[in-house]
Design a protein that fits this description.
With 68 residues, the chain is an all-beta fold. It has no helices and five strands. It is elongated, with a radius of gyration of 15 Å.
Length: 68
């Protein structure tokens, strides 16, 4: 896989990943934001194998709950 884009600064999260394999390909893009105690991200994934394509979207919300 190859990381095509990665940014995590100024409250912005952005990432792109591309994976190529003999049987198919996968691309993932992540966009979101963060603050000192929270973050939000949306991930879009497209997997292609032969003539089949699957798309998935997920969202993540996180918050700090205390010291480890």
């Amino acid at each position: 896989c190859e990381v095509a884009d990665f940014v995590m600064e100024g409250g912005v999260i952005r990432m792109g990943i591309n994976c190529a394999a003999p049987d198919g390909d996968m691309t993932m893009s992540v966009n979101g934001s963060y603050q000192s105690e929270t973050y939000q991200m949306i991930s879009d994934v497209v997997v292609s194998v032969g003539d089949q394509t699957v798309t998935m979207q997920s969202s993540i919300d996180g918050k700090r709950v205390g010291d480890c």
